Amino acid sequence: MRCVAHPYSAQPDPAQDDPRVGPPKTSAVGLPAVLNSVRQVGEHAGVRRGVPAMLAVNQKRGFDCPGCAWPEPERRHRAEFCENGAKAVAEEATTRALTADFFAAHPVAELAGRSGYWLGRRGRLTEPMYLAEGATHYEPVTWDRALDLVAEELRGLDSPDQAVFYTSGRTSNEAAFCYQLFARALGTNNLPDCSNMCHESSGSALSETLGVGKGSVSLADVHRADLIIVAGQNPGTNHPRMLTALERAKRSGARIITVNPLPEAGLRDFRNPQTARGLVGRGTELTDLFAQIRLGGDLALFSAVNRLLLEADRRGEQVLDREFVDAHTHGFDEFARELLSEPESEFWPRVERDTGLERELVERIARMVTGSERIVVCWAMGLTQHKHSVPTIREVVNFLLLRGNVGRPGAGVCPVRGHSNVQGDRTMGIVERPSDAFLDALGAEFGFEPPRGHGLDTVDSIRAMARGRVRVFLAMGGNFVAATPDTLVTEEAMRRVGLTVHVSTKLNRSHVITGSRALILPALARSDRDLRDGRPRWVTVEDSMGMVHASHGVLAPLAEGMRSEVDIILDLASRVLGESPVAWSELADYDRIRDRVAAVVPGFDDFNARARRPGGFTLPHAPRDDRRFPTATGLANFTVNGRYAPRVPRGRLLLQTLRSHDQYNTTVYGLDDRYRGIHDGRRVVLVNPEDARELGLADGAHTDIVSEWPDGRDRRAPHFRVVHYPTARGCAAAYFPETNVLVPLDSTAEVSNTPTSKSVVVRFEADSGPPTA
Predict the structure, then answer these.
(1) Which phi and psi angles does 201 have, rounded to 5°?
(2) How far apart are CA 10 and CA 737, in angstroms?
(3) Where is pLDDT greater, at 521 or 667?
(4) φ/ψ bin of 429: left (φ > 0), alpha (ψ from -120 to 50), beta (otherwise)
(5) What values do phi and psi take at 662, rounded to 5?
(6) Is residue 276 pLDDT above 80, yes or no?
(7) Residue 361 to residue 367: CA distance in whole angstroms
(8) What is the edge-to-edge ordering of all strands in the sheet holding 269-271?
(9) For residue 14, is pLDDT > 50?
């Protein structure tokens, strides 16, 4: 096979070459998390900015934490944040300003050789910067000149589809609505977003089976559940405040099943820092049963539990909710017939091979299920980033439908979103394939005919850029280059764009891998005060459970030149399109944006008044609210999902990419993964000790990771320290974005087109040394 050279050109920090490794932790949060939070806030923001910010985060009159989308309880602790939230807010509230002097001292070529960690620690962007064609350095530019440059390029396109409008989940509802309105008034549906790379598989599966592509549970449902299954998710690092909800459920009698290839400290022993017991006493053992599944085996597991339920029903046991199935579902007979068709002598050996779990453990799960009236299934990227992710999540829905666990208090589907408003962005119309109903409402409200053709998602945008079909790439937040797969292909694609524009708060790798020309436009952050004519403005966000609430910035911006995302969009749209058909300048009053949202988006009636209520309001959800399913059949759909699981050749392992504890997506706060026992380094690969011995991988040795694909083009990530770790047999793990290089652009999930970052077949070869710029 041909092997693609290592494409990630950024130099690692010296400490990342030789991390310190100790035993994994068996408990999470507690006093160490408190102390680390205090240290982070003090280091970045100081007392005068840091303390007011932390006292306001996630409060009803404060601002929404940028760290994750987990909802806030009705009664809130004065410190309603987690360690990772403290890191996120501290970096936003930093006193370090990134000015023109910095860019004058550092050519772009040098910055491209720096790690994302180094770039992110330079401070907040404060003034527009422009990289002219052929230039070596970014130079300061006025806002008028910067926006005119973008407007000139957009007006000069041969087709609106030569522009791509990317969105990250940090964007508010108001900014997202204006952004999609601008793109569609221009004439394109090219609105890729970070959902395409994470929960797109969830949305695809849930839309088909339940009719709504969102979770169906509230925080109260989690609290009152009898059984909670947490599959393919690590709340202790990715959504730490979820642990508090799990603890409350546990103390009310719930049992918790954890399904994951890695043992995670947060789901073992949670030490709640909001209680004295959590700080100085024993924690709460959250997990009742740990199913250490092989990567990609979740479809087989849920299919096996479903088969056990069907077999029990055939024996006359009252384990199915027949009344619900008969009244509210479609396709049960075909589903049951197919699932029971495989001979038992073939079924169980396959399930054990695909899952790595013994039959007795699966049967124990089924007994816990039949002993529970109310069941919630939570999941994240461990289920959504496989070739067969959509069938897997459809099988999860089958599992819940069998016992009527949709539309019942304390039960339902719970895809846990990452970005704090990624769900709200989609609700506001950030989607490349909008419904006709949404476009009809948008066109009627603003008096124009929106484009009807499907636009480009994230993966297809990269393909179009690589083919030279994109002249303008505009990103509202995020770190597109580092977040996407196939790093070499993505970087080369970005370099083929005429103008790349990033509306950002901090420097990241996407600012130094540019088109022929590039602009960086500094935006206010969630924690910053947004003033217009001396009067404060506020925005709204939607959390992972469909709650919409206000977010009020509290900190003085570091510089006068920073603008809100909304103002940037409106000014640019006016320069490109004029004030017709949309009076863009009027929307600088955010109340007027919310009035227009109320006219276009279902569930937002009387938006302004309801958003002003402390705590906000809950969006309607037909399956949850009244067991109404707006699907093609008008019912909840059982589905037939096949028997797929990844196949790994001998001498290879299946790799998943994941976050470290000092990381939020592509933002690296530090170089530690405290719960996994890794310090001062990121280039590590976690391998089961037995697999390592068979492959000759000594603990502490360095190796190159090489991924193998059917197209014959191997991909290489060099110089990773081997860490013997209790992963599932046959599986390995390493951090992204360092290992995004291993995931080809064309390896995506069926239906959703999400990169398969959790299903990477890899081999290990002799260490070729650290990557060089």
Answers:
(1) -65, -35
(2) 11
(3) 521
(4) left
(5) -95, 40
(6) no
(7) 10
(8) 28-29, 269-271, 284-285
(9) no
User: CB–CB of 456/432 below 8 Å?
Assistant: yes
Q: 115-119, 457-461, 490-494, 631-635: lowest mean pLDDT where? A: 115-119
CA distances from 399 to 622, 633, 644 (A): 19, 19, 17
- Residues 7, 271: Cα–Cα separation, whole Å: 41
User: What DSSP character marks residue 727?
Assistant: P
Residue that the structure tokens 């490349």 belong to: 432
Q: Which two tokens stand for residue 649?
A: 């050749």
Most distant pair of Cα atoms in the chain: their distance = 77
Residue 378 has pLDDT above 50, yes or no: yes
d(CA 617, CA 244): 22
Q: Find tokens 């103008």 and name the residue.
A: 499
Query: Which residues, in sequence order, are bridge partners of residue 193?
Result: 167
Q: What is the pLDDT of residue 79?
A: 79
656/296 Cα distance (integer angstroms)? 10
Element (H, E) at 592: helix 590-600
Dihedral pair phi/psi, residue 130, rounded to 5°: -125, 135
Q: Which of left, alpha, beta for 585 (phi over 0: left; psi -120 to 50: alpha)?
A: alpha
Distance CA 563, CA 126 (A): 9
Tell me the residue ranges of DSSP E strands in 573-652: 617-618, 636-637
Q: Please, which residues bridge with residue 473 across strands?
A: 164, 500
How far CA 666 is from CA of 459, 508, 510, 737, in Å, comes to 17, 9, 11, 6
Mean pLDDT of 16-20: 75
Q: Rounded mean pLDDT of 180-208?
A: 96
Residue 554 has pLDDT above 80, yes or no: yes
Q: How confident is the model at residue 1 (pLDDT cuts 50, 70, 90)?
A: very low
Structure tokens that stand for 508 in this block: 């990241």
Q: Which two tokens stand for residue 495?
A: 């370099």
Of 519, 500, 503, nearest to 129 (Cα)? Answer: 519
Rounded to 5, what percent of the chain is helix, strand, coil?
Answer: 40, 20, 45
For residue 431, what are its two tokens?
């989607």
Confidence (pTM) = 0.95
Prior bond of 737 cis (ω within 30°) = yes
Closest CA to 531 of 566, 503, 569, 506: 566
Residues 9, 499: Cα–Cα separation, whole Å: 22
- For 169-235, the three-class secondary structure string (H helix, E strand, C coil) is CCCCHHHHHHHHHHHHHHCCCCCCEHHHHCCHHHHHHHHHHCCCCCCCCCHHHHHHCCEEEEECCCH
Please give the pLDDT value at position 66. 86
User: Is 465 in contact with 496 (CB distance < 8 Å)?
Assistant: yes
90 vs 265: CA distance, rounded Å: 24
Exposed / middle / buried, residue 227 (Cβ in 10 Å: 0-12, 13-18, 19+): buried
* Residues 84 and 92 sit within 8 Å (Cβ to Cβ): no
Q: What is the DSSP string of 407-422?
A: SSTT-EEEE---STTH
Q: How far apart are CA 261 and CA 653, in angstroms?
A: 13
Q: What domains can be seen in the chain, in order of their start residue?
A: 2-23+650-766 (2.40.40.20), 122-198+421-523+563-604 (3.40.50.740), 210-416 (3.40.228.10)
pLDDT of amino acid 594? 98
Contacts of 335 (CB under 8 A, 6+ apart): 398, 638, 639, 640
Do 316 and 326 contact (CB within 8 A), yes or no?
no
